Amino acid sequence: MNKYRYRVLLALGGLFHDVGKLLERAGQKAKGRKNFSYAHAKLSYRFIDRVLKNKLSPKDYQMVLDSAFHHNPKNQLQELYQKADRYSSKERSTNQEDISDRSRKRLRPIFLGLEVDFFNSQLDKDYYIELNKLELTKDVLFPKNGIPKRSKKLYQDLHTSFENELK
To answer: Sign of the CA dihedral 12, 67, 20, 97?
Structure first.
């Protein structure tokens, strides 16, 4: 396999490895979690399996599917995904509240964790980024003042939109 294809497949795995977090917040349940210590990892596995199995060669599919095992790696590629996941999660605060019902915990945009003087003077804990399909518009990209609504429907709508775009 050439380096470019390898990198594209790694990137695809990186993008899909935590898609289960969106599905979890949209109300999907992870049944039969054997080999998965986290529900979102099982949901990511099911999503990748359903969406990519018939669109990639078996070898390429397995390379992306390995990303779902980033919490319990069994091979070198899964360990690579695990290291990347740990590195990218460094943006999370160590004192973030622990909510056992993840379907209620809102995903936090990493940009709100920036510690830049301008942002610190402009933003406080009452700002949030609304759940929307990503668009390059001011309404979507910039934080809003207030407290976000907790809505499973917002996650369901994002999930449906995402699925439709993959077809």
So the answer is: negative
Neighbours of 40 (CB within 10 A): 22
Most confident of 84-98, 120-134, 141-155: 141-155
Q: Is the dihedral of CA 64, 70, 73, 77 positive or negative?
A: positive
- The predicted pLDDT at position 145 comes to 76
In the chain, the amino acid numbered 115 is E
Measure the CA–CA gap between 92 and 161, rounded to whole angstroms.
27
- Separation of alpha carbons 81 and 53, rounded Å: 19
Give, for 128, the enclosing helix (H) or strand (E): strand 127-128
Q: Is 151 helix (H, G, I), strand (E, B) or coil?
A: coil
Tens-digit pLDDT profile for residues 17-50:
999 999 998 899 988 878 888 999 999 999 999 9
What is the pTM assigned to this prediction? 0.73
Q: Are 147 and 124 in contact (CB under 8 A)?
A: no
